[in-house]
Amino acid sequence: MSQPRLHPGQGTTRLTALLGRQASKRSLERTRWVLMGLFTLNGLMFSSWLARIPTVRDTLDLTTGQLGVVLLAGSIGSLATATVSGILVTRYGGKIGLYLSTAGFALAYVLLGLGPALGSVPVLAVGIFLIGVSFSIGNVPLNVETAAVERRMGRTVLPQFHAAFSIGAVLGSLVGAAASHLEVSLLVQFAVTALVGTLWRLAAVPHAVLDSVPVRERVAVVDIDAGTPAPPARARGGVRSALDAWREPRTLLIGVVIMAAALSEGSANDWLALAVVDGFERTEAVGAVVFGVFVGAMTLVRLLGTRLIDRLGRVPVLRASGVVSLVGLLLFGFAPTLELATLGVVGWGFGAALAVPLGIAAASDDPMRAAGRVAVVSTFSSVASLGAPPLLGLAAESMGARHALVLITVAMVASVLLSRSVTPLLTSHGPATVRAGAPSPT
What we know:
By secondary structure, the protein is an all-alpha fold. The protein is 78% helix and 1% strand.
């Protein structure tokens, strides 16, 4: 039987298309692992700083309440730039945001070391403020890009990026514990952290952006990747869409869910090690290890929870997460022994693992509006961080840090009640994500 004849150039066209798809797949995989690396770096840097908070407190002779006020500087910085970061990324693209974040982190960590070395609380506060600013500016493009990777892969993978953050945080807590045990000065530790972080980010940023391109390029990106060009007027109105997200009820409810999740995870970041040190009269190294247990529990669920989300859907998983986290925190707060309290920390970490990734995925369902919506929900996260340190610090003065942490169970209940807000959204470009309850595509 004769073989079908190809028209002149047809074979070349097919080969070109095949090579293009293979190149696109390789580019997607490279971006995925670059983003994994950046999330890991963020976790490592943050956790290595958080593990040394007791040393910072003792070096500067701060009370628990005063420490809470100083930690407030980071939340103020994050809140001050949350909305601006959405507009910045929408108009100028994610690379600009990531480069600005890189410079801010470098300066911030140098100041974190200089403050205690000089005995200066204001220098420390400026460093913490810059951490908040830098995190807020870099957070929007990172989350938009991870959601873009998830859409292109056609299955839930976003929690894996947050798992990478958790892995970095485990490593960072171990680095902090080791530095504390070896009596490494804060200035040396944080100067090295600043150098490593800067070099890592400068190498990674050029390969980290798929969706968060400047607004003038937005139509071309949608045309190539989704096959459906966006209306020119909508693309040109990117900044306005970033602000319009503040009037969307669904986005605001997702923001409340994110706020509850940030309050849970952030309170553990700020106070868990200290609660173990003060509540059970243990060393700073033991407090850092218990914090590492919390982060390790989150990491495990973030790695294994993607199939659970694809099978059960976002809403049931968010509800179950809130209940498990609630029970774990209550056990930690009222357990008579450190061993039993640590078991509660495991449950707390299990429950806290998926709430933020689920909220970010829901806010990023529509790629054309993702940057503005992620900025909005990030603002809610900043509000939680703004209120929690001083309020928990004041509560800790009267009831101890361990019992003060129990107060955030109220936020966990709110997250359970508002869980339906993360239901996947269908956009004009087709399904924005894997439908809740649908099996994972093969």
